[in-house]
Amino acid sequence: YTCVIDSAPDYAPAYLSRAEEYHYSYEYALAIADYETYLQLNPDKDDSAYYTYDDYYVDPAYELAILRRYMALPDEALDAWISAQQSRYSYDDEDNKQTLDSLNVVIEADPTFDEALYMRATIYDEAGEYENALADYQAYVALIDDEDSYTHSRITEIEQLIALPDDLQILYREGQEAQNIADYATAIDAFSQILAQQPDFMKLYYQRGMLYYYLSEYELARQDFVVYQDRVSGEESSEVDYLLESIDTLLGSLDGE
Q: What is the pTM of this model?
């Protein structure tokens, strides 16, 4: 992109593309400069023009706001935020600890840093530290302007989890662990035991339905998805609609054999 800019300094898409490269290489100051140049070359702010050189849509004003917030962090917190982003998705326990340590530095410097709160919440959630996850999810949704249906749904699920008796919380973790290693029968058994005592734990109908789906137990999957669908809305409901249509198609093809 630099070569393109050197030969055609008024070619705006190259600045947008290079800004994205700088952004995801954590070169935030350079990314800001290129986003600003792009906007100067497009003063009408025509949304249709917000594409990188390789046709990837970007809203430079939105990206600028994010990066300026990053750059407002103290140096130590900014370094910690970059470190957290680099280590977050390795799925290694030691790296997750490093990510948590980094996020704690960021949040201590700026308790309203919503991205860091959400990232820390997901790490706690994955580790089964539900009280900590709940606190961070709640702090996150209190800060954002738009409705985040997934996070609100997850808050409800965690509240239900925390309210479970200790033996059922243990059973839930065992079911999750079994699901993670594709031991679907064991996971189904664990979730079924919980639902027998806690029939209002809606998310488990979805989880168990997916496990039945993976095992080609389509009628049982359908039953769970229908129960779950009656209690959800928005994106989650659309996903269940798709799954139910898929099951109808699969069952239809099996009936035709």
A: 0.78
